[in-house]
Structures are given as structure tokens and as C-alpha cells.
Design a protein that fits this description.
Blueprint lengths: L9 E2 L1 E3 L2 E3 L2 E6 L7 E7 L2 H19 L3 H17 L1 H12 L3 H21 L6 E4 L5 E9 L2 E5 L7 H12 L3 E5 L5 H13 L7 E3 L4 H10 L5 E5 L2 H13 L4 E5 L4 E5 L5 H13 L9 E7 H17 L18 H17 L2 E4 L14 E4 L6 H4 L6 E7 L2 H9 L3 E2 L1 E5 L3 H10 L4 E4 L15 E2 L2 E2 L9 H4 E9 L1
Parallel strand pairs: 1-5, 8-9, 8-11, 9-10, 11-12, 13-14, 13-19, 14-17, 16-17, 19-20
Antiparallel strand pairs: 2-3, 4-5, 6-7, 7-23, 12-22, 15-16, 18-21
Length: 483
């Protein structure tokens, strides 16, 4: 009896309401080498240009669409995502390697984000001021930025596009989305949901492909008014240069992090270990907010290291669809090679790996979570973003040294402290130079209604998420009226 494998789906580019084909490329399962999750049609520069032109044509009509209609469409998109959480979460786990439980949470958050911005449209949209001139009034209104290019990474293929696309559409902009090549299946499903919800042709467009082709066309296009980017720091610098060189576009960059978790002598040991384990290793360490530097006061250092080492070794690495797994695979072979290279760098620099440090014997791109001790803050291990399940412990003597070490980085995205002292917690919140500060919680984990962003090389431009997203996607217009 002959059996046939089910056909592999192919996700196409969405341009002006039409599905556009291109060179077919595979989207592989990082947990099962050789398994093709889906294919996608890579866009060439001509397709991207067509998408930008379509967004430009659709821009006036969408900007003038009544708020109530925009609300209904965004709410419909969010409701559809929430109705399909299980199906979409399985797809996300298969293509990116995220644990099924984490994937469910991410897809749920994406749906909630679209619904949140639907209702943000009922918030005040301007301000009225007294004029210093007689028989005159002054007000500030907001108009859409225009055509927005959205470039997103592979580690959160639902949450990050949602928190960029939803506010862009809500505030009257048209969008061209270019997702990372590793996660085109999730992007394709999001595009289908947005189209099926009734969003007019050209208002939302999807182009898939590599950075030098699809990405460059977005960055250099005269038809793009602004670019919202999340990804690596080096790529972010390139985005900024291109935006300035080609039309002086507005740009928003969310980039890397080398986030510290400070553990003071008075910390609850169980809480400290839980925060370090979650922040450093969950999601396979593939979070820009991951706590990859554990800055630990000397009095608790040995007990903390012993407890965290045991907990790290006990973590179960396996198939993300297996509910027993606690860590899934690394997203790509290149990322796995980079992680393992940094393990060797850490060893050469003199740090000691007390847990993990190698590729597992299982099939797939699996890596054991790796904990280093004896690290110094001047090591590459402690200064460069790895973006994998690798964390290092740096011993300090007191609170002041902990704050100094925590802040000694070119990044400034997230930082945390574990302490039972209200005084120490308040001082840390005031002294930390990061954009996100946590107390007795992991450094990773944010909420959709609150601003997200950092300082230094972690961020450039207005904050994302919550009501703060309006600052990027709209332009303030000052109006004076005399009578």
C-alpha cells in the first residue's frame, strides 16, 4: 500500500490584497532536522516595491476610515487569533522551537494586543492649550505617520509583529511587514487573518525574504515614511544609517541586551534561583530581556551557585511539543554554533562551566542550558549578547559594587534585583540605567499595556507598546485658530 505525506503548505507574499508567488524556500523544524514545516515565497525587490506603492495608494483612504470601523477590524483580528490559539501555537512551536505552553502564551498575547489597540482608539487624541494671543486658540492634533515598514525578528513571531502592526493600523497608517525568514509560516497566518478580517487591499502587505533583498528595498524606498525594527544591534545600526541616507525616515530600533540580575545577601534563595532560571534559560535564552549576567553578593554567592547549578542541570531539554519539556531547541544551526562558540570563549577567558556547555545527544538543535561561575564583567562572556541559554555569575562585595557592575554595559534594556529590603529595591530602581527594572521577578517578561524599550545600544526612538506606541506612529500637528 502506498502512503503519501500531506502536501507542505506554501505561504505567499501579500501585495495590494493579492497573494504573490516567488522563489520557494523551505521553513525547517529546529527540533526535527529535515522536516519541512512549510515553504514560503521569497520576494524580490520588485515585489517589495509593489507592496510599498500599494501601501502608499491605500494610505489616504485608510487614514480617513472612521475610528469605529478601524476598531471593529482590529477587534475582529484579535478575536480570530484568540479563537485559533491552539492551532497557531503548534505551528509556532514547530517552526521556531518555542515550548508549546510558551507558544500558547505568545499567540494569546498577540490576539490581546490587537484588541487592546482597538480600544485605545477611544482615548483622547489631542490637547487644547490657551493661546498667548488675544482672540486665538491653540490645539495639538495627531495625524498618521504614513507608510510604515515593519521588520521583525524570529524569537517572537506573533507578539512582536502584533505590537508593531496593531498600533500602526489603529492610528491610520498602512504597513509593509517583513518578518525573519525562520518564521514565515506564522507571518503568513497573521497576514491571512488580517486580510480575512476585511482590512482593505494595500493597507497591510507582507513581503518575505532576506535582509539584503527585501529588507534593503524597504529601507531605501522613497515610499516608506518610517521603519520600526527589532533585531540585532549591528543590523539596527545599518537600519538607522539607511533611514537617514534615504529620505530621512523616522525610525524606531529595539535591539540587544546584556541584562543583569542582582542577587543581594538578604535575598530569598528560592526566589533568586527561580528568577535566574526563568530569566536566563527559559525560551532557550532567546530573549533580548534574558538575564545573562547574574551579579551576586559574596554572602549568598556559594549557596546561590549550588542551588542554581542543581536546578539548571535538572532542566529537561526536548521537543517543544512534549509537555514535559522545559527548554526547546535553538532556533537555527547558525545560532547553535554561535552559542557553542561563546561557551568556548568563556572557558578560554577563565570562567568555569558548572552546568551544560554542550549540544545534547538528541537529534535536533538542542543545547543544554549553560551556567558559568568565576566570571568577570570585562570578559566577552559578560559583555556581548549571546542570545542563547548561557548565563554567568559575577561575584561582588556589596550593593554599590553590584549597581556599578550591573550598569557597566553598552546596553540598557532590562535589569533586576532580588532582595527582601525595600530600601535596596527602591535605590536600585532609582540608580538603574535600564529601561525596564524588576524586583523579585525575572528580567524577562513584559505586559502589553506598559512601555517597552531601553537605553544605550538597546534602543533608539520612542518606546513601544501601550499608549506610548502612539508617539512613533503619529505626528503631532499644532493648530492655531484666530477669530
Amino acid at each position: 500500500m502506498t502512503t503519501h505525506s500531506p502536501p507542505v503548505p506554501c505561504h505567499l507574499n501579500l501585495v495590494d490584497g493579492r497573494w504573490v508567488d516567488g522563489e520557494r524556500r523551505p521553513n525547517l523544524n529546529p527540533a526535527r532536522p529535515g522536516e519541512t514545516v512549510a515553504e514560503y515565497a521569497a520576494a524580490d525587490r520588485a515585489v517589495v516595491k509593489e507592496a510599498v506603492d500599494a501601501a502608499g495608494r491605500a494610505r489616504p483612504g485608510w487614514a480617513s476610515t472612521p475610528v469605529g470601523e478601524r476598531m471593529r477590524l482590529l477587534d475582529r483580528i484579535g478575536a480570530t487569533i484568540l479563537r485559533r490559539v491552539e492551532e497557531l501555537a503548534v505551528l509556532l512551536s514547530r517552526e521556531e522551537g518555542k515550548l508549546l505552553a510558551e507558544a500558547r502564551g505568545e499567540v494569546t498575547r498577540a490576539g490581546q494586543t490587537f484588541r487592546y489597540y482597538a480600544h485605545q482608539l477611544l482615548q483622547p487624541e489631542g490637547e487644547i492649550y490657551a493661546s498667548t494671543r488675544e482672540r486665538a486658540s491653540a490645539e495639538v492634533r495627531r495625524r498618521p505617520l504614513g507608510v510604515v515598514g515593519v521588520i521583525t525578528p524570529w524569537n517572537y513571531p506573533w507578539a512582536i509583529p502584533a505590537w508593531k502592526v496593531a498600533p500602526a493600523l489603529a492610528y491610520g497608517n498602512t504597513v509593509v511587514l517583513k518578518p525573519a525568514e525562520l518564521v514565515t509560516a506564522s507571518a503568513g497566518e497573521m497576514a491571512r487573518i488580517i486580510t480575512d478580517a476585511g482590512v482593505p487591499p494595500g493597507v497591510f502587505n507582507l513581503v518575505m525574504g532576506d535582509g539584503p533583498t527585501a529588507g534593503e528595498e524597504l529601507l531605501t524606498s522613497d515610499g516608506i515614511d518610517g521603519v520600526s525594527f527589532t533585531g540585532g544591534t549591528a543590523t539596527g545600526r545599518h537600519v538607522a544609517r539607511r533611514c537617514v541616507e534615504y529620505g530621512n525616515k523616522r525610525f524606531q530600533l529595539e535591539m540587544g541586551g546584556k541584562n543583569p540580575l542582582v542577587v543581594l545577601d538578604d535575598a530569598d534563595l528560592e526566589v533568586a534561583v527561580r528568577c535566574a532560571l526563568d530569566g536566563g534559560f527559559f525560551s532557550t535564552g532567546q530573549r533580548c530581556t534574558a538575564s545573562s549576567r547574574l551579579v551576586v553578593q559574596s554572602g549568598i554567592h556559594d549557596r546561590f551557585v549550588d542551588a542554581l547549578t542543581k536546578a539548571t542541570r535538572a532542566l529537561r531539554v526536548g521537543d517543544p511539543l512534549d509537555e514535559r519539556s522545559q527548554l526547546g531547541p535553538v532556533a537555527s544551526p547558525d545560532q547553535l554554533a554561535r552559542n557553542l562558540e561563546y561557551v568556548e570563549i568563556g572557558r578560554r577567558e577563565g570562567a568555569t562551566a558548572v552546568a551544560g556547555g554542550d549540544h545534547t545527544a538528541e537529534e535536533g538543535q538542542f543545547m543544554r542550558p549553560t551556567l558559568f561561575v568565576g566570571a568577570r564583567n570585562d570578559m566577552r562572556l559578560a559583555r556581548e549578547e549571546i542570545f542563547g541559554p548561557v548565563s554567568c555569575v559575577i561575584k561582588v562585595d556589596d550593593f554599590d559594587e553590584a549597581v556599578a557592575v550591573a550598569g557597566d554595559t553598552r546596553y540598557g534594556l532590562s535589569s533586576g534585583i532580588v532582595t527582601t529590603s525595600l530600601s535596596a529595591a527602591e535605590r536600585f530602581k532609582r540608580l538603574s540605567r535600564s529601561g525596564i527594572v524588576t524586583v523579585n521577578l525575572p528580567t524577562a517578561g513584559t505586559e502589553l499595556h506598559l512601555p517597552f524599550g531601553g537605553t544605550g545600544e538597546s534602543n533608539h526612538g520612542p518606546r513601544e507598546q501601550g499608549a506610548y506606541a502612539r508617539d512613533f506612529y503619529t505626528v503631532p500637528v499644532t493648530c492655531y485658530t484666530g477669530w
